[in-house]
Amino acid sequence: VFVMEEKDGFWTSPQKVLTLSPHRDRHFTLTPDGQRIFFTSRRPVNSGEEPAKNPNLWVSKNTPSGWTQPQPLKAPINTDQAEFYSTVTEDGTLYFTRSISDESADIYRSPLVDGEYTQSEHFDKPINTEYVDGDPYIAPDESYMIFLSNKPDGFGKHDFYISFRLKDESWTPPKNLGKPINSEGNDVCPLVTDDGKYFFFFSNRTGRYEIYWVDVKFIDDLKPDELK
Description:
Layout: E1 2-3, E2 6-7, E3 10-11, E4 15-16, E5 26-30, E6 36-41, E7 56-63, E8 66-67, E9 71-72, E10 82-88, E11 94-101, E12 104-110, E13 112-113, E14 116-117, E15 121-122, E16 133-138, E17 144-149, E18 159-164, E19 175-176, E20 187-192, E21 198-203, E22 210-215, H1 217-222
Antiparallel strand pairs: 1-4, 2-3, 5-6, 6-7, 7-8, 7-9, 10-11, 11-12, 12-15, 13-14, 16-17, 17-18, 18-19, 20-21, 21-22
């Protein structure tokens, strides 16, 4: 895994951040301040142990001497269930997916308090349902969240939905992003660029997984009137 930065209109040379393990390392997310990388892996939690049965969330930190050796997040974030696909707000709040069973997954939130994640807050309806709800992209200012769900009102296996955070900290009922963003295929891994201009995601709508992107103006179009 490498990181490049755009400085004065030019890209810096690639900087090696992490060496992939043979344990399904994936879902790499750089925090808004560029100081941490979160990712999903089944690598052994402790040296000499067997690979984890279910994936956990790991983090590597950027230090003056380079990126640290990745460490698994502690409980109550990582559990004996599957934790994966996380994004982080400007103040360090972590959003992630926890798989409850093969047929269900939910979105969780954990604020960063004194440098530690000590809570694992479960979203109630209308965010989490009895279906698969996961892969949360959270806006850096926590104003909206885009996530996938296989609710029966969608177009394909998984569709993207958006929910906005209101002033009372409640969340609006999720809206399907519709076509052409969603498709009859499997649409996963949502991400908005740090400059807030483009929405990137993976989709297998052509028969194989490829990267797609679109202007984020659709977000303002879907925003409730009280937030415009």
